[in-house]
Amino acid sequence: MDVVALTKWFESIEAAVWHWTFMPLVLVVVGGILTVATGFVQIRRFPVAFRLVFAGAFSKDKSASKTITPFQALSTALAATVGNGNIGGVATAILIGGPGAVFWMWVCATVGMATKYAEAVLGVHYRVTRESGELASGPMYYIRRGLGDTSFAKLLAWLFAFFGIATAMFGTGNMAQSNTVAVSFVAAVQSVTGTVVPMWVPGIIITISVGLVLLGGIQRIAHVAEKLVPAMILLYLGAAVSFVVINAGQLPHVFGLIFSEAFTPTAAIGGFAGATVAQSIAMGMSRGVLSNEAGLGSAPMAHGIANVKHPAEQGVVGVFEVFIDTIVVCSMTAFVILESGLWTSGLYQSSALTAAAMSQTIPYAAVIVAICSFLFGFSTLIGWCYYGEKCFEYIFGSAYTKVYRVLFVALIMVGAVVSVPLVWAIGNLLNAFMAFPNLIGLAILLPMVRKITKDYFGGTGKEYSVNHPTTGARVGN
Length: 477
Description:
The protein is an all-alpha fold and about 475 residues long.
C-alpha cells in the first residue's frame, strides 16, 4: 500500500471517529455535565486560577522530594499542550473546516476547562506512590482506584495506558511535532537563504535536543518547562499580536466569518475546496483536543503529582492551562491566518500557512515561526515522553522505561521525514482512542469531583484527606 492510499485510509477512519455525532458530541456532553456539576468552575473560579498561577510563577518555594511545584506541573502540562497544534493544527483546521472551525475550537475549550479541572482534581486525589518512591498519577490510576478493583476498571485503565503509549510514540505527542518542526525549519531556511534543506537535518537537531533533556527524568523536564514555556509563549504571542494589531481593520470581518460559517457551509473560494458544517465541527473539535488536550487524559499525569494541599487547587490551575492554550494562543494563530486571506490560496499546508500569513506584515516572520515551532515541538516532545513513560510504566513496570525512551527518541527522527497528512491523521485517530476510556472514567467519577469541589469552595477545605498507597512494580496487571 503506497503512502497516498494509506493516508486516505487513515483519514477515512479519522473522519468517522471525529464526525460531530461521535467524539465531538461526547466531549461536549461530558464537559457540559462537568461544567454544571462543578458550578461553572471555569467561569466562577477563574480569578482563583489566575491568582494561584501568578503567585506560583513568582514563588521561590521548592517542591518536595519526588514531587514538583504547582507551577512546574502547569508548565509541564503546558509544555505538552502548547505545541505545534497551536501553529500547524489550527492552520489545518481552517484549511479543511473553514473559519467556522475556530468557533467550535472555542466551544471545545470552554467546556474543556471544566474537563481539565476534573482531570487534575482526580489526578491528585487518586495518585499513588510507586515502588521507586515517585508519585504517579493519571486516568489509569483514578479509573482503577475510583471504579474499584473490577474487571471493567482494569480493562478501562489498561486501554487508556495502551493508547497513551501509542499516542506518545506514534501520534500527536511525537511524530506530528517533529514533522511540523521540520517543515517550519525548511520553510524558514528557504525563505531567508533560498536553500532547500533536507527534512532530516532539523530532524537530527530536534532528536538530539530532546534526548539530552530526557536523561534527567521528570525533575529536569519540569525545571526546563518552567523556564521555557513562558518565554516561548511570549515570543510567539508578541509576533502574532503585532500582526493582528497592524491589521486590526480586518478583525470585524474575521469575527463575522468565524461565527457565520460555524453554522453554514463555507463556499469554495480560490484554492479552498469548501467545507460543510460537519467538517467545521469535526476539525474545530479534533484540533481543539489536539491543542488543549482536555478530555484526552494526558495532563493529569503532570498535574496529579503537584505538591498541593487540596486537589481543587491544582484543578483550577488546569482551567488556566486550557485558557492560555486555546483561547489565547490558538485564537491568535487563527486571527493571523484569517486576516491574511491566504487560507483560500491552496498553496500552503500546516505551519507553512501560518508562516506565510505572518510574513505579509512581520519581517522574517518565517524565522520567528520556525523558532517558535522548534520550541513548541521541543517542549511538547519532552512533556509527552513523560506521559507515555507513565503509561508504559503502568503496564510493564519501571524496569523497562529506558527501552521506552530510546524508542520514543528514535521515532522523533522518523516523524520528521514522513508525510504530513498521514502523521496528523494517525495522531487525531489515536487522540480519540486515548480520550474515550478517560471520558468514561470522568463520567462515572463525577460525584467524587463534585464532592471535592464542594469541600474546597463550599467549606474550609480542611476535611480533605487522601491516602496515596505504594504500588507494586506492575500496577497495570
